[in-house]
Amino acid sequence: MQAIDTEEFKRLREEHVPVIDVLPAKMHDEKHIAGTANVPVTRDDFAQAVAEQIGGSQGPVVVYCANAECDASPKAAHKLEKAGFEQVYDYDGGTAAWEAAGGELAGAQA
Question: CATH number of the domain at 2-106, please?
Answer without folding.
Answer: 3.40.250.10
